[in-house]
Amino acid sequence: MSFDELPATEAIRRAVTGTTERAARAERTAPAARTWRAEKVEPIELLRRVPYGRLATSMRALPFLSVARHIVSDGHILLRMHGGFGHHEACDGSVVAYGADNYSGSVSGDGGDLWSVQFTGPAEIVHPCPEQEELFGAAPVSVNGEPYTPAYLRVDPHFATEHRLTF
């Protein structure tokens, strides 16, 4: 099956893995115990809780990760990244993975659960409308001492994976 034959964005297949399944089972057997929160949030909605994530793809046959600012718009993930490295050009028309987490926002023992999400799908260079640009907020001044040049990608998520660590 080619990637073009995969289901549309509205039919994103989720593979929930990690501790979620075990925690839900523990909650059924010991309801008094503190386990996975009852709120059920779609993986793409978790992105709204953190501003940055990591984009993964390959460039000249070598894998790489790049930090990116993200927003969610119409079921797509819009990314703003530094254009000076050319990473956005390597991603244009390719299947990429984008992941984010709340690992820096919570730590074990403070009552907060940790989560990470990863989305896989095709990416393309886009030019966001002014309203979308505003949602990104202020851009960095520089990257590695060079002036920051914004570049934008849209990721059409076809697969989503979610992992939760419950404390």
Report on the structure:
Helices cover 16% and strands 40% of the residues. The strands form two sheets. It has a six-stranded antiparallel β-barrel with strand order 2-3-4-9-6-5. By secondary structure, it is of the alpha+beta class. The protein has one domain: Electron Transport, Fmn-binding Protein, Chain A (Pnp Oxidase, Chain A, Roll), CATH 2.30.110.10.
Write the layout of secondary structure elements.
Blueprint: E1 13-16, H1 20-29, H2 43-46, E2 52-59, E3 62-73, E4 76-82, H3 87-91, E5 95-101, E6 114-125, H4 130-136, E7 142-143, E8 146-147, E9 150-155, E10 159-165
Parallel strand pairs: 1-10
Antiparallel strand pairs: 2-3, 2-5, 3-4, 4-9, 5-6, 6-9, 6-10, 7-8
Strand content: 35-45%
Report how far the terminal alpha carbons are from each other.
40 Å
**Spatial order of strands in the largest sheet:** 2-3-4-9-6-5
Uncertain ranges = 1-38
Query: How many strands, what sense, and barrel or not for the largest sheet?
Result: 6 strands, antiparallel, barrel
Helix content: 10-25%
CATH class: Mainly Beta
Q: From the 3D structure, determine the CATH topology.
A: Pnp Oxidase, Chain A
